[in-house]
Amino acid sequence: MDIDISVRESAEGADHVIHLDALVIGAGIAGIYQLHRLRELGLNVRAFETGSGVGGTWYWNRYPGARFDSQVEAYQFWISKELYAAWKPSERYPAQPETERWLNFVADRLDLKKDIQLNTRIASAHYNEDSGRWLVTTSAGQQIDTQYLVACCGMLSAPLTDRFPGQASFKGQLLHTALWPKGEVDLAGKRIAVIGTGATGIQVVQSVAPLAKHLKVFVRTPQYILPMKNYKYDQAEWDKWSSQFDELKLRVRQTFTGFPFDFEVGPWAEKTPAERLAVLEAFWEKGSLELWLGTFAEMFFDPSINEEISEFVRGKMRARLNNDPALCDLLVPKTEDYGFGTHRVPLETKYLEVYLRDNVEGVNCRTAPIERIVPEGIMTADGKVHEVDVIIMALGFDAGSGALSRIDIRGRDGRSLKAQWQQEIRTALGMQVHGYPNLFMTGAPLAPAAALCNMTTCLQQQADWITGCISHARSQDRDVVEVSKTFEDEWVAHHDAVAAATLVVKTDSWYMGSNVEGKPRRLLSYIGGGAAYNAKCNELAETGYPGFGMISIQRRGMETMNAYYGQEGHGPYTLYNIGDLTLEDGGVIPACELAVATFGKLNAAKDNAVLIPTWYSGTNKIIEQVLIGEGRALDPTRYFLIIVNQIGNGLSTSPHNAGGDLAGAAFPHVRIGDDVRAQHKLITENFGIERLALVVGGSMGAQQSYEWAVRYPEMVARVGAIAGTARNTELDFLFAETLIEAITSDPGFAGGSYAAASDVAAGLARHARLWTVSGWSDEFFRQGKHLAMGFDSIGGFVANFMVPYFAPMDPNNLLCMAWKWQRGDVSRHTNGDLAAALGRIKARTFVLPISHDNLFPPADCAAEQRLIPNSELHVLESGDGHLGLFGTDPAMLAQLDTHLKALLES
Ligand code: NAP
């Protein structure tokens, strides 16, 4: 075999470590494009490619007949119209040599080759948690230290080669389609065997049949096929397509499969049988994949519709085989095999007619499986030896996960991607895997690009998203990007739910991983459609990549000091850098970050935004769990809900994660007004919102809501102030003071310079007990609600619920919030005149105290409500007290929903 699969010794030598911003694995379609995009970003990036030339799939698969079956006008790079127009394809479905030349042309035009190291196989990639970087080693021992590792390894690039015992004993020539030798392979006049009749085998068979002395095709599972109508493209044809560049570029990202066509013939149910047949006939004549991917989407869901379409195709196939019973039995799938389109449908050119030739014989290796390769040829289970000169194996690939699993990839804590994927194949959007920070991938499992997509479309879309994500992280001064476990779980669940509704999961094929023994079964490709996937990706990019944690290595020491805070437990949320925040009480928080979780979509009028600030110690997660849901008042299908974590709560900039001069106890005093000014910047500058439909929050969230209404009266249409006041009372101030003392009096607190929250465990436990006493009400315990929660006594409740709740929290963070809470007072704006401050409010305001709240009793709230124009008081009846905010009383939540719905509709 003279294809160059050996790898060269590194020119730089094994002892010299190269330092890169980004390393791209592979120089196929995705690798080339990714390299180009990251270079545009100004990164020091290099691609490493095992082959001795660029092209990826189109480098390795140089077997006879190799060509793509997407129309060439759609199988393109969308980099520029000039580039598109400059390459003139010779035909509708160009063959491999032309495609390889095209990819070289693109790489040359973009001057990419100087940054591509060929003949280099990546052997391992190990993540270093201290540096946030990857150490990559080639099989020649060259080492590369890189911040980002972008694997563009291809979804069909790990060929299945060693499949039969005795392969090495074969006296003739053994060829694998995906490792086809460069240069001429003389097949003329030879006795040839082809094993495998997937898309590859079919192309080989139809191409070598006329050359062979004798051809034996080993057929196991028959294939549904569609005829390819290929024809030459002249200059006029290409000019026509080039003039449509902009529309095509847009269109391919809006369709289900990344082609310029979609399922647009109308519903099956609304057509008569004659009309359906007319559609199928017309699309059969098109000679493209459109009959499969551009007619009736119902074929993927409804077994009876699928059977009718399958039978249409079978009828066409039988006719082409002259209805020969033996050939039909061998080559036409049966109903019980699987349905049309439930795995890859290849395009072919006179493939079936090949079997009518005298020099071609189909061997049924379903009834007589291949046992082994012997020196003379192939031995089947019936004891027969099929003597041949050449064996061509077209046995497919370990698809999607195979290429990455063949590299020793180790993420955080040394975890192995291969080992994980041997158990279960999981990714987030097919682009990241939790536990592997700064590793991005294209064409990997659980994205359309893993199979169900026109590859150029989906790979460029992924590379664009990855580029955007990296660019965003850098703009935020973040070094490490890692998807949260929660996001990944949600994506996997969504992927599976979409897949489960289809017939595809019922058919064995490489789509399901069932062609590789022991591979965990899961549909490799996301089947919700390219358009939906794009929309999801775009939404993430527009909202700052929620679910993708981004940290700064310099500050990471502080952040990891307390593992409680982070995407894992509280995500997904996005960090927004709102710039330097000058504080009311003096000092500046440089590059202040707000952690923000959003739900729903901002409408075109931008008038459905609801802002929800957080309460003491709470994060976006608890608010999501307690207040948000379809059919609830805060319904993400109607409103764009923005939960902003307050400064100091551990997710937004806080003492424990600030680092530098502001770290820990040195963190400056922050007031409610500072949070609200920071939020205002976020709302106006990041989201472009000029008016909020509602600002609603509980406790400290209510303090912030009032501050919004007083400070920016024109911007706030409505306010819902739950269990909180606009001006803190003296008693409340004193309660917060006891919380502060409980913590600071712990010797482990050490003036705020403790090493870990656990050093202040005693102080945090005292703080938890104080919260038990005042946060819940007498009524809560009288009703035995703590017992109903599974605790045997109030002591057990404190020890096993309240103390553990606060124990992991950072003491300096809590103190930051407590100080802020104590000084919540909108009358700062009016020289202490509360009536004047509240009189400024233009928002329709609902004051919503909790009946048994010890901290913000209804009487305090009612007194303020009387000072607010256009306001109403609605007391939420609940014996749970202030901490009923955590959703312990469903009846109270129902009341709250009723009031908020009424407020939103007023
Ligand atoms: P494949 O679809 O996985 O087909 C592998 C073939 O090998 C199947 O027919 C399989 O039979 C057979 N096989 C495997 N083990 C066997 C055994 N022990 N005995 C007998 N037969 C055995 O692989 P592929 O043909 O390389 O195609 C993979 C994908 O590449 C395609 O689906 C397509 O997405 C892509 N491709 C695209 C083009 C194009 O654009 N035109 C061309 C080629 C490939 P069973 O089905 O019974 O397992």
TL;DR of this structure?
With 906 residues, the protein is of the alpha/beta class. The protein is 35% helix and 15% strand.
3D architecture notes:
There is one protein chain. The chain has 906 residues and is an alpha/beta fold. The strands form seven sheets. Strands 1, 2, 3, 4, 5, 6, 17 and 18 form an eight-stranded mixed beta sheet that branches. The protein has an eight-stranded mixed beta sheet with strand order 21-24-26-25-27-28-29-30, with helices on both faces. α24 runs antiparallel to α25. The longest helix has 21 residues, at 455-475. It is elongated, with a radius of gyration of 32 Å. The relative contact order is 0.07.
Which small-molecule species are bound to the chains here? NADP nicotinamide-adenine-dinucleotide phosphate
Determine Rg (CA atoms, Å).
Answer: 32 Å
Number of helices: 32
Largest sheet: 8 strands, mixed
Helix content: 25-40%
How many β-strand runs? 30
Give the low-confidence spans: 4-14
Structural class: alpha/beta
Give the integer mean of the pLDDT values.
94
**N- and C-termini, Cα separation:** 77 Å
The backbone outline, from C-alpha atoms, is elongated
